[in-house]
Automatic annotation (TrEMBL):
Residue ranges of domain ABC transporter in the record: 2-237
Listed Pfam families: ABC_tran
Keyword Repeat part of the UniProt annotation: no
Pro residues composition bias: residue spans: 232-250
Its membrane topology: Peripheral membrane protein
Protein name: Cell division ATP-binding protein FtsE
GO molecular function term, any single one: ATP binding
Family named by the database record: Belongs to the ABC transporter superfamily.
Domain of life: Bacteria
InterPro entries associated with the record: AAA+_ATPase, ABC_transporter-like_ATP-bd, ABC_transporter-like_CS, ABC_transpr_LolD-like, Cell_div_FtsE, P-loop_NTPase
Protein location: Cell inner membrane; Cell membrane
Subunit structure comment from the entry: Homodimer. Forms a membrane-associated complex with FtsX.
Function field: Part of the ABC transporter FtsEX involved in cellular division. Important for assembly or stability of the septal ring.
């Protein structure tokens, strides 16, 4: 689905902000992208969403090597990618319905089909009663849900989300992540950039970790320093621990977060979506 080989990126004549990036994402996989501020997460997502071209190295998307494609071929590839931007990028003068309908209208979808698809999707994300409002009257989380609905309405093969849970409360974050998990279950490949290590630890999905423009060698869902215990040996083809592993009673508490054993809503084993 996605393959990066020794990719580098520089903006203009500036220094390389991404260096020697190599990884592969299988179709239908779910990955987090983490790293400190300025590590290069958004830049990597720009490469993934074809907003930037690499300064060096090879990027292959949907089996097509980008350097071999003429610029005219990019729009067709872009239509296969749903992007959720950090700042939503909703059109404030258009209703929630029209924002979500826009990609379908651009694709020339028939009105009746648009009506059906957008209404269903907005109900699915819990905004069925907000369809005719303008974005400025929505909460941050609701805007994020609209942005996600717009990104997925065309059933893209790849969804890329930049900080989709930034500045919203825990409950809404969970709701948004559940949406991505549902879409992933339907076969969509998902990449979510986040600073929220709580979600990363809870969801137990593979992690791409960026530091100063480079990918960390081993990128698994749980780092030893976050768990307060040594990491188990990572198998070559899977995460360091099975998602179904029971919590380790000897493990140090995960900073100040609530103990999931005391709050069933936070226990991944009790939540079929986690
Ligand atoms: N358009 C641009 N022109 C020049 N430099 C840029 C541009 N966009 C990003 N950079 C630089 O690239 C580096 C990586 O930035 P990027 O936004 O990718 O990091 P990030 O990990 O997403 O950060 P954050 O977590 O704060 O969103 C930074 O040094 C930044 O200043």
């Amino acid at each position: 689905m996605v393959r990066f080989e020794n990719v580098g990126l520089r903006y203009g004549t500036g220094p390389e902000v991404l260096r020697d990036i190599s990884f592969e994402l299988a179709a239908g996989s779910f990955h987090f992208l983490t790293g400190p501020t300025g590590a290069g997460k958004s830049s990597l997502l720009k490469l993934l969403t074809l907003s930037e071209r690499p300064s060096r190295g090879l990027v292959t998307l949907f089996g097509q090597q980008l350097s071999k494609l003429p610029r005219g071929a990019l729009p067709e590839l872009r239509r296969r990618i749903g992007v959720v931007f950090q700042d939503f990028r909703l059109l404030d003068h258009m209703t929630v319905f029209d924002n979500v309908a826009l990609p379908l209208r651009i694709a020339g979808t028939a009105d009746r089909r648009i009506q059906e698809a957008v209404t269903d999707l907005l109900s699915w994300v819990g905004l069925g009663d907000r369809m005719h409002l303008l974005p400025p009257v929505l909460s941050g989380g609701q805007k994020q849900l609209v942005a996600i609905a717009r990104a997925v309405v065309t059933s893209p093969q790849l969804i890329v989300a930049d900080e989709p849970t930034g500045n919203i409360d825990r409950e809404m974050s969970h709701k948004i992540m559940r949406l991505f998990i549902e879409l992933n279950k339907l076969g969509t490949t998902v990449v979510v950039a986040t600073h929220d290590m709580y979600l990363v630890d809870r969801l137990q999905k593979p992690v791409l970790e960026l530091y100063e423009g480079k990918l960390a060698e081993a990128s698994w869902w749980l780092s030893p320093d976050r768990a307060g215990r040594p990491a188990p040996e990572a198998p070559p083809d899977g995460p360091a621990a099975a998602p179904s592993d029971p919590p380790d009673p000897q493990a140090a508490p995960l900073d100040s977060r609530p103990d999931p054993r005391l709050d069933p809503r936070l226990d991944p084993r009790l939540d079929p979506l986690f």
